[in-house]
């Protein structure tokens, strides 16, 4: 049996983003001009920067039991723009501690573009649980027609704003507000197929009509529908994972049931390097297939 060795994908510091420090269950990041302190349960080690560096953050996310709150200094706008990778994106602190950007996804965005750049045919891509659109815009930028599906209108509006900021709003992108499973079934009935699929299934969520999603109950159906939605000559399939307790090997096994023994599968961890490059913050897992 061939064992697929996990790889570690690393996002390095760039002009508009850096992971300054991490530890004690928190991370300190700079998005453009502003430094944010947020919880991160993976940071099971001591902080290295002095406490004054953390305390001087422009925005600090506090959590006390079930209560959460951003402490944001008066000079910080409600939202601002940064350049990240090849995209321009809107950053905005949300009540869930997120900012609209998951920097560790940069290597996946680059992988998507690499898959597409060598293709001379028109490629159709389905992005499920697509959030604020980084993967969608990367695929569109590389020439694909993209169907962006999310159950949150706010997320779709944010993604469309990112498309405008990145000068990609004229690209062939369908913006779909729908429950992912319901939409996939409708696409099958319509006879539509896709050459590439991207997905980032959460542990729990709700669609626009309060449709319930639970990964332990719905993931198998999600992958089965994905198999049926792939074209006869698919190009790639990417599964992201942030659910605690799941392994990239589990996603690999599921993905292999969809694509068979053809092509090449890579699995591993998505990480961010601290500014000094001495530590990596683990952020998520991935399994991705390319038809080679």
> What is the share of helical residues?
25-40%
Identify the CATH architecture of the largest domain: 3-Layer(aba) Sandwich
Distance between the termini: 20 Å
Number of domains: 2
Quaternary status of these chains?
single chain
The largest β sheet comes out as: 8 strands, mixed
Kindly report the CATH topology of the largest domain: Rossmann fold
Defining traits:
292 residues, alpha/beta, Immunoglobulin-like, Rossmann fold, 2 domains, 5-stranded mixed sheet, 34% strand
How does this model look, in words?
By secondary structure, this protein is of the alpha/beta class. It folds into 2 domains: 80 residues, Immunoglobulin-like (Sandwich); 188 residues, Vaccinia Virus protein VP39 (Rossmann fold). It has 7 helices and 17 strands. A hairpin with a 2-residue loop joins strand 7 and strand 8. Helix 2 runs parallel beside helix 3. The chain is globular and about 55 Å long.
What's the quick description here?
With 292 residues, the protein is of the alpha/beta class. It folds into two domains: 12-91, Golgi alpha-mannosidase II (Immunoglobulin-like); 103-290, 3-Layer(aba) Sandwich (Rossmann fold), CATH 3.40.50.
Q: Would you spell out the secondary-structure blueprint of this structure?
A:
Blueprint (H helix, E strand, L loop, with lengths): L6 E5 L5 E7 L2 E6 L2 E6 L11 H5 L3 E6 L2 E6 L7 E5 L2 E5 L14 H12 L6 E5 L5 H8 L3 E6 L2 H13 L7 E5 L2 H11 L5 E4 L4 E3 L5 E3 H15 L6 E6 L6 H12 L4 E10 L6 E11 L2
Helix pairs in contact: 2-3, 5-6, 6-7
């Amino acid at each position: 049996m061939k064992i697929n060795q996990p790889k570690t994908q690393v996002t390095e510091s760039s002009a508009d983003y850096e992971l300054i420090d991490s530890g004690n269950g928190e991370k300190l990041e700079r998005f453009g001009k502003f430094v944010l302190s947020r919880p991160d349960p993976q940071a099971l080690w001591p902080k290295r920067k002095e406490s004054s560096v953390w305390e001087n953050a422009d925005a600090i996310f506090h959590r006390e039991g079930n209560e959460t709150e951003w402490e944001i200094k008066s000079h910080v706008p409600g939202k601002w723009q940064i350049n990240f990778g090849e995209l321009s994106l809107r950053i905005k602190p949300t009540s869930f501690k997120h900012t609209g950007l998951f920097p560790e996804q940069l290597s996946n965005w680059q992988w998507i573009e690499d898959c597409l750049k060598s293709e001379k045919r028109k490629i159709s891509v389905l992005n499920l649980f697509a959030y604020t659109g980084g993967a969608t815009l990367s695929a569109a930028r590389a020439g694909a027609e993209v169907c962006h599906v999310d159950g949150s209108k706010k997320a779709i509006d944010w993604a469309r704003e990112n498309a405008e900021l990145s000068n990609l709003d004229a690209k062939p992108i369908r913006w779909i507000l729908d429950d992912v499973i319901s939409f996939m079934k409708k696409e099958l009935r319509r006879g539509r197929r896709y050459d590439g699929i991207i997905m980032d299934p959460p542990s729990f969520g709700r669609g626009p009509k309060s449709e319930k999603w639970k990964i332990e109950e719905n993931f198998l159906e999600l992958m089965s529908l994905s198999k049926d939605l792939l074209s006869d000559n698919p190009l790639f399939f990417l599964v992201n994972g942030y659910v605690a307790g799941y392994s990239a090997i589990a996603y690999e096994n599921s993905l292999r049931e969809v694509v068979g023994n053809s092509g090449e599968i890579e699995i591993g961890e998505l990480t961010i390097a601290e500014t000094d490059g001495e530590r990596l913050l683990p952020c998520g897992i991935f399994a991705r297939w390319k038809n080679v």
